[in-house]
């Protein structure tokens, strides 16, 4: 079995189309097709159903794909490890971060790291949790810095940096601030600016409303890639939103206040997340240590 044939198979499985897979790998379609055929012949299995619309994994192909993807990813990591050792562990850190912690934590920590490792480089992806974790699982990121789910996934390792709290926020002088005996039902009657339904923060408030027998929030402004626009629209409208306690204390929280209501807060943990068993270069490991040091500075 050739490793190139395995890579060809993984690419076709991910794209569902020989042409797109060949374009991504920079090979010709005939070469890719022959590689997949060789792999099927060596295994004695049919991995794809060929249709006029593309390539669809068979049942056995789907099972094999999950294993093959891990093999290719592991090989890439082994090559990266060898290169790190050869270059004295200087390389590029691929880090994903949710917007509230991009500047104060991830960027500041890299500034400190750069003073220690002048040859270090970083490629930073700023997005919401669901997108970051998906990229992490695909091997496109080494680590992410974001909120940790209440139940730690079996395939991920989480290192807590600090405790935070997610709060319902609104503009100063919002009519709700004058309401006596404010209840969760009063929030359900408002309009909201929230991230997409797959994001942890959104799931938490929907679960809180559901537990109270209330309908899901009426979201009129949804941001699927970043929450950086939300503070601006919250300051200029009567929409409600969610913001971390850390962000509320920063410039992003200017003109906004957190509701003083027990049902309008969610304690959470912020941490560094990596794939279990994944190779982390000495540089990435040192960066995680610096992130921990920076997190302690933020709490003092």
Structure description:
It is a single chain. With 300 residues, the chain is α/β, with parallel strands linked by helices. It has helices at residues 3-15, 18-25, 29-43, 59-86, 102-116, 129-137, 184-188, 200-211, 230-236, 245-248, 282-299, and strands spanning 48-51, 54-57, 92-97, 121-126, 143-148, 156-171, 191-195, 218-223, 241-244, 256-258, 265-275. The strands form 3 sheets. Strands 3, 4, 5, 6, 9, 10 and 11 form a 7-stranded mixed sheet that branches. The protein has a two-stranded antiparallel sheet with strand order 1-2. Strand 1 (48-51) and strand 2 (54-57) form a beta hairpin. Helix 1 crosses helix 2, helix 1 (3-15) crosses helix 3 (29-43) and helix 1 packs across helix 4. The chain is globular and about 75 Å long. The chain starts with a helix and ends with a helix. The relative contact order is 0.14. The mean pLDDT is 88.
């Amino acid at each position: 079995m050739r490793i190139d044939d395995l890579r060809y198979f993984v690419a076709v499985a991910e794209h569902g189309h020989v042409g797109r897979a060949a374009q991504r790998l920079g090979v010709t379609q005939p070469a890719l097709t022959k590689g997949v055929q060789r792999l099927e012949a060596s295994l004695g299995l049919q991995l794809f159903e060929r249709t006029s619309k593309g390539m669809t994994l068979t049942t056995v192909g789907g099972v094999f794909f999950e294993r093959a993807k891990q093999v290719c990813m592991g090989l890439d990591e082994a090559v990266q490890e060898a290169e790190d050792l050869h270059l004295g562990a200087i390389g590029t850190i691929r880090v994903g971060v949710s917007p509230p912690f991009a500047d104060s934590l991830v960027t500041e920590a890299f500034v400190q790291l750069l003073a220690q490792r002048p040859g270090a480089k970083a490629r930073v992806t700023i997005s919401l949790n669901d997108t970051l974790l998906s990229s992490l699982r695909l091997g496109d990121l080494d680590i992410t810095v974001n909120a940790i789910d209440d139940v730690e996934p079996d395939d991920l390792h989480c290192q807590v940096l600090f405790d935070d709290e997610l709060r319902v926020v609104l503009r100063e002088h919002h009519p709700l601030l004058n309401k006596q005996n404010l209840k969760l039902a009063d929030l359900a009657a408002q309009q909201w600016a929230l991230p997409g339904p797959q994001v942890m923060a959104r799931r938490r408030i929907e679960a809180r409303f559901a537990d109270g027998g209330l309908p899901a929030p009426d979201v009129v402004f949804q941001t699927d890639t970043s929450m950086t626009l939300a503070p601006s629209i919250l300051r200029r409208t009567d929409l409600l939103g969610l913001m971390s306690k850390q962000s509320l204390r920063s410039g992003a929280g200017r003109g906004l206040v957190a509701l003083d209501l027990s049902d309008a807060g969610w304690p959470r943990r912020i941490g560094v997340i990596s794939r279990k068993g994944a190779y982390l270069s000495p540089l990435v490991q040192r960066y995680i240590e610096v992130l921990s040091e920076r997190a302690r500075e933020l709490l003092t």
